[in-house]
Write a structure and sequence with these properties.
Keywords: ATP-binding, Ligase, Nucleotide-binding. The chain has 69 residues and is α+β, with helices and mostly antiparallel strands. The chain has one helix and three strands.
Length: 69
């Protein structure tokens, strides 16, 4: 979605949470942070990292994805 022009981090997080929840997961955390400072950002203006952790049953999955637009 970010590659398609969606730069509002709140909307990106909501979409990810909705997708994981619909797949049966439970979100531990979801945050979009600046790639250098790791501070949370509200809008993508420079490289960021989407950090997310979710539970699927007894398994906790953690992933980080770099987003450059």
């Amino acid at each position: 979605m970010a590659q398609g022009g969606l730069v509002k981090c709140g909307q990106l997080k909501d979409l990810a949470i909705q997708t994981i929840t619909q797949a049966g997961g439970r979100i531990d955390y979801a945050e979009v942070v600046d790639q250098e400072s790791l501070e949370a950002v509200e809008e993508i203006k420079s490289p960021v990292v989407f950090c997310i952790a979710a539970w699927f049953g007894k398994v906790r999955l953690i992933d980080n994805m770099e987003i450059n637009i």
